[in-house]
Write a structure and sequence with these properties.
- The chain is built from 15 helices and 15 strands.
- It is α/β, with parallel strands linked by helices.
- It folds into two domains: 2-120 and 306-370, NAD(P)-binding Rossmann-like Domain (Rossmann fold); 131-299, NAD(P)-binding Rossmann-like Domain (Rossmann fold, 3-Layer(aba) Sandwich).
- The strands form two sheets. An eight-stranded mixed β-sheet has the order 3-2-1-4-5-6-14-15, sandwiched between helices. The protein has a seven-stranded mixed β-sheet with strand order 9-8-7-10-11-13-12, sandwiched between helices.
- Helix 8 links the parallel strand 8 (193-198) and strand 9.
- Helix 1 (20-28) packs parallel to helix 2 (47-53), helix 6 crosses helix 7 (178-189) and helix 11 crosses helix 12 (329-335).
- The chain is globular.
- The two termini are 22 Å apart.
């Protein structure tokens, strides 16, 4: 198969779909790999490393889109990239379609076969291709929140861990999954006063056993959530419904109860955000203020630590890329129901139930695509 990867063009996105090591694996399996010139610069991988690994360096993304049978990316294709997709071409990347009707419509019109990292599952019900980026984003959320809390960045001027004789910051983490766990781990490690909210008794029990006295847990109902948000210096939004738009848990009215200069970090912004006042921002302009509350809503947080993120992502995406290239997408999905769960758009049809429901579009089961 001809596999291509292009330079990411989303604002301040430095990750790349394939590392030189991944290219080597694909080339060793007999596949032709095309890499756009300069695609790996953001992770410190020059074109020479890709050539040594067996890639062909191609001058423009347009040439790769025109030639490759499968495009491997990191972020969702931007409008100019979506216009270059063609019927039957495989797109393998993060998509996050539920809050993005424009992208969904254009992918449907393209006729491409679109496999989304974020909905591929595993035998435990987890999301293995989303997990490493959730780990990165959870940890980064605390770094970003701590910076936003500084007075020079519009925050309250509070140090997360405090100092002897001065209380630490109060951190509320909404959601106890991968993002929430990693955020709480970082915040507790810095000495913050951490409360994690979740609706699953099993999750709360596991978190309680892990953190013991280093973090508190609370059941996430409206009253408890409102109380924690009002008291917090930093709130981390870490909720996820696989493939679907995130629920708006923190309302605009709740902001009026918060401290002046408190910070919200919405890690769910890729799926539309879990704060009612959230709107996607970029690393160039990461924050904005509503009702004296600082909002950090960068939609590609892991892009800031591109080398770590790219290698963590390739560790989990490459095995599926190899199977798709070796077997063809239909046979790969036929053999692996977990990879099949990643099929979001095929032949002008939406094949992921949550996306179809959220956008009010007809749903075609992924099983029909491989029949």
């Amino acid at each position: 198969m001809i596999v291509g990867t292009v330079k990411e063009i989303k604002n301040h996105e430095y990750r790349v779909g394939l590392t030189p090591e991944s290219v080597h694996e694909l080339a060793a399996s007999g596949h032709r790999v095309l890499v756009e010139a300069g695609a790996g610069e953001g992770i410190g991988a020059g074109d020479d490393l890709y050539v040594k690994a067996g890639a062909e360096i191609i001058a423009t993304a347009a040439e790769i889109f025109a030639t490759a049978e499968m495009i491997v990316k990191v972020k969702e294709p931007q409008a100019v990239e979506r216009a270059m997709l063609r019927p039957g071409q495989i797109l393998y990347t993060y998509l996050h379609l539920a809050p993005d009707p424009d992208q969904t419509r254009e992918l449907i019109a393209s006729g491409a076969t679109c496999i989304a990292y974020e909905t591929v599952t595993d035998a435990t019900g987890g999301l293995p291709l989303l997990k490493p980026m959730s780990q990165v984003a959870g940890r980064m959320a605390i770094q970003a929140g701590a910076t936003a809390l500084e007075k020079a960045h519009g925050g309250r001027g509070v140090l997360l861990g405090g100092v002897p004789g001065v209380l630490p910051a109060k951190v509320a983490v909404i959601g106890g999954g991968v993002v929430g766990f990693n955020a709480a781990q970082m915040a507790a490690g810095l000495g913050a006063d951490v409360t994690i909210l979740d609706r699953s008794p099993e999750v709360l029990e596991k978190l309680g056993m892990y953190f013991e006295a280093r973090a508190k847990t609370r059941f996430s109902n409206k009253a408890n959530l409102a109380e924690c948000v009002a008291e917090a210096d930093l709130v981390i939004g870490a909720v996820l419904i696989p493939g679907a738009a995130a629920p708006k848990l923190v309302t605009a009215d709740m902001l009026k109860t918060m401290k002046k200069g408190a910070v919200l970090v919405d890690v769910a912004i890729d799926q539309g955000g879990c704060f009612e006042t959230s709107r996607a921002t970029t690393h160039a302009e990461p924050t904005y203020v509503v009702d004296d509350v600082v909002h950090y809503c960068v939609a590609n947080m892991p892009g800031a630590v591109a080398r770590t993120s790219t290698y963590a992502l390739n560790n989990v995406t490459l095995p599926h890329a190899l199977r798709i290239a070796d077997l063809g997408w239909k046979e790969a999905l036929r053999r692996d129901p977990h990879l099949r769960a990643g099929l979001n758009v095929w032949d002008g049809k939406v094949t992921y139930q949550a996306v179809a429901d959220d956008l009010g579009l007809p749903y075609t089961p992924a099983q029909d695509a491989i029949a």
